[in-house]
Write a structure and sequence with these properties.
Blueprint (H helix, E strand, L loop, with lengths): L13 E2 L14 H12 L6 E9 L4 H15 L4 E6 L2 E6 L7 E5 L6 H13 L11 E9 L2 E9 L5 H19 L12 H12 L2 H13 L21 E6 L2 H13 L4 H17 L3 E8 L5 H4 L7 E8 L5 H17 L5 H7 L15 E5 L4 E4 L2 E9 L6 E7 L5 E7 L6 H18 L16 H11 L6 H5 L5 H11 L4 E4 L3 E3 H17 L7 E5 L4 H13 L2 E4 L6 H11 L4 E3 L11 E3 L27 E6 L9 E5 H15 L6 E3 L9 H6 L7 E3 L15
Parallel strand pairs: 5-6, 11-14, 16-25, 18-19, 18-20, 20-21, 24-25
Antiparallel strand pairs: 1-3, 2-7, 2-13, 3-4, 6-7, 8-15, 9-10, 12-13, 14-15, 16-17, 22-23
């Protein structure tokens, strides 16, 4: 932010608009300093507040201009200028600054009201140089012969929302008094200098120490901000807004609940929003950012200026009943208001939150409950006060206010760098439906019993997204097992390539080797409800042995030859396999149960598919297909048996979801001792797909298929 040189403000180099007299400089309040540094860090995102008064009837623009100047002299906020001395910002009240209310006639526009909103939006989203630009602007937009938008925009560093409303009400009061020919009542406002002095006195007081202690307890162990979006992003000049009128039925029930629980509609809304956030984040706790005026004296409440603050509202909403949350919210709001002057920057610093999500300055979504009557008397005419912007939104804001005809409106306002327009529309619909259910909830029932989805979302989830029925029999055959799936595929595509590794096998060759080895295992007692261990590294031999074990009806138990001998011994002792298949390369130290399949002469055995008549008992889908042992990180390894039916169901789903074709090749990379390997071993046989293996030296750096 650059400006021209200032004079008469004490020693040091001054920057700002040149003046000829000597308005007395004075420091910024802590609230203003927070805005100063925020704007300095992001100069292209204006921290403006804006509002307009919708006036139906006659409006004397000249009188409005004149009384606006009078109000500026009383409050000072609209004629503040800023400067710097030795890098430190200061402010001064300069009555010579114009307080212009610019007339803009939009009656010839195709849609004057829309044109007025476009004009206002372009103004309050324009970047403001704190040292060179005017920090306050006003206009009267004429949108009809007897309809006007009285527009006011101020940088947040000179006015907060409460101060802006106070200033606007004072202008309206003076306007009415002048039209009626009477003197207005005294404003009884404090000067901006007195507000700064009051803040300095507060920070040296016991009240400040008590507030610091209160918030220190409230944010103890707070591990970060609540958010419905896990990312952080810069704020934007323009926010996304989606709003609708709240149905009267909900409003009436909120008021009934507030009366029954000795509370207010604002507390009901805050509790509901906290419950909504807790449900969507899956946490018991929700933290809201609660805007407060930080005006604790009558003089402060009659003054303009920038004093507002944002404090955390930390609520345990996950496991509570509705009555418990209402009571908790009422207590926490009362405490927050008693200690509202302690700055949110100090709260975050005290809690050690400065390094958490560095782009986040608040504690969670903002809950801005503005349930005040918005009518303003302007002579014989009544205008309706509308808030256009309270500044850029960091994450998300819930805004509740009285709209036209004194009906309650709910807006969801969000940072467009974090949310899309359809996101906030869904959040709005979901929150309103949640609130509707909540206000009809028995106060002693848990909040977890209330659905958080809209009726449409529930229908989509249950009827559309959950419509995942698959006819297993049609896709895999009646009473399908891994064996029957393999046999069907081998019969359909006998010439297709099945295995690519140290040797290449077509499906017919692959099936022949499987069936011969299976018959040799049956002769040794392998069958349903028995196990056969596989002590073989990743290779075509492992797949042949695995399928052969399944063809007998037995379950395979994979062993990793590189595992410690103690673990291998424990698995064998626990699983009690009929035998252990291995190869010359993988042979470990074992007893007579160990069989080196490289040394078996299987040429005399049939290569036809094995039948139930040959097995020791019929193979059924409910029989275990494998037993894989856990890592044992929480104790001894535990064997987990999974059936043919379960694996077939998984494979049919995977095929319907991912649609592998016969041209695809599956890289078998997961060790057989991990259950994630199961689909790699059995999915390819569904549609004549082939396996390949990475070279052992390629695992750590890049995956390269063995030739």
């Amino acid at each position: 932010m650059q400006g021209s040189e200032l004079s008469g403000f004490g020693p040091g180099e001054g920057h700002g608009a040149e003046i000829t007299s000597d308005p007395s400089p004075f420091p910024l309040t802590p609230a203003q300093l927070g805005v100063w540094y925020a704007q300095l860090l992001d100069p292209q995102t204006p921290i403006n507040i804006a509002q307009y008064v919708d006036v139906h009837g006659d409006l004397d623009v000249e009188v409005l201009q004149r009384v606006s100047v009078d109000a500026a002299r009383e409050f000072g906020s609209t004629v503040v200028r800023l400067g710097e001395i030795d890098g430190e910002p200061y402010q001064c009240v300069d009555p010579r600054l114009p307080v212009d209310i610019v007339p803009v006639d939009l009656r010839d526009a195709a849609d004057p009201v829309a044109a007025a909103h476009d004009w206002m939006r372009a103004d309050y989203t324009r970047p403001v140089d704190l040292l060179a630009d005017r920090l306050f602007a006003g206009a009267v937009l004429r949108v009809g012969d007897r309809r006007w938008f009285w527009y006011l925009r101020a940088h947040h560093i000179v006015l907060d929302g409460f101060g802006a409303l106070t200033n606007t009400m004072r202008v309206a009061e003076r306007y009415t008094a002048e039209l009626r020919g009477i003197d207005p009542e005294p404003a009884k406002a404090g000067s901006l200098e007195s507000l700064v002095d009051g803040e300095r006195g507060y920070r040296d007081s016991t009240r400040f120490a008590a507030d610091r202690g209160y918030w220190g307890e409230r944010v103890r162990d707070l591990d970060g901000a609540t958010t419905l979006n896990g990312r952080s992003a810069p704020r934007s000049a323009g926010n996304l807004v989606y709003g609708r009128r709240l149905p009267d039925k909900i409003v009436n029930r909120m008021n009934d609940i507030a009366t029954a629980h000795d509370s207010s509609a604002a507390v009901v809304l805050l509790a509901a929003f906290a419950a909504y956030l807790a449900r969507l984040t899956g946490r018991d706790e929700a933290v809201l950012s609660l805007p407060v005026t930080a005006r604790t004296t009558a003089v402060m409440r009659r003054s303009a200026g920038m004093l507002s603050n944002i404090v955390p509202l930390r609520l345990q909403a996950g496991q509570a009943t509705w009555a418990q949350l209402l009571r908790q919210t009422r207590v926490e709001v009362a405490g927050a208001l008693r200690h509202q002057r302690y700055r949110h920057e100090d709260i975050r610093r005290d809690a050690g939150m400065e390094g958490l999500a560095t782009r986040r300055a608040l504690f969670g979504p903002l809950a801005n409950i503005m349930l005040f009557r918005s009518d303003l008397t302007l002579g014989d005419t009544v205008g309706r006060y509308h808030v256009l912007s309270t500044g850029p939104v960091e994450d998300m804001s819930l805004n509740v206010y009285y709209g036209d005809s004194d009906r309650v409106h709910v807006d969801i306002e969000a940072n467009p760098n974090l949310y899309r327009a359809d996101d906030i529309a869904r959040h709005h619909a979901r929150f309103v439906r949640f609130l509707e259910r909540l206000v009809d909830l028995d106060p002693d029932r848990p909040l977890s019993s209330v659905a958080v989805t809209t009726d449409l979302e529930r229908e989509v989830s249950l009827r559309i997204w959950n419509a995942t029925e698959v006819d297993i029999a049609a896709l895999a055959g009646a009473d399908a097992t891994l064996v029957s799936m393999f046999e069907r595929q081998a019969a359909r595509t006998p010439e297709a390539v099945a295995l690519r590794g140290s040797r290449t096998l077509g499906y017919a060759e692959f099936a022949a080797e499987v069936n011969r080895l299976a018959r040799a295992l049956i002769a040794r007692g392998a069958g349903p409800e028995t196990t056969v261990a596989l002590h073989i590294r990743r290779s075509p031999e492992l797949v042949v042995a695995m399928y052969a074990v399944l063809a007998t009806g037995a379950a395979y138990v994979p062993l990793d030859p590189d595992h410690p001998a103690e673990r291998i011994g424990y698995v064998l002792e626990t699983a009690k396999p009929i035998c252990v298949l291995t190869t010359a390369c993988d042979h470990g130290e074992g007893d007579s149960r160990w069989i080196d399949i490289d040394e078996l002469d299987l040429s005399a055995l049939s290569d036809r598919p094995v039948t139930d008549a040959e097995r020791i008992s019929p193979l059924r889908p409910q029989h275990p297909a494998y037993v894989i042992f856990t890592s044992g990180s929480t104790g001894r390894p535990k064997g987990v048996a999974v059936t043919h039916a379960a694996i077939v169901n998984r494979l049919v789903w995977m095929q319907s979801a991912y649609h592998l074709t016969a041209a695809d090749v599956v890289l078998q990379k997961t060790p057989a001792t991990f259950d994630v390997s199961v689909w790699e071993f059995f999915w390819p046989c569904r549609s004549a797909r082939a396996w390949c293996w990475p070279r052992p030296t390629g695992i750590a750096t890049r995956l390269t298929c063995a030739p």
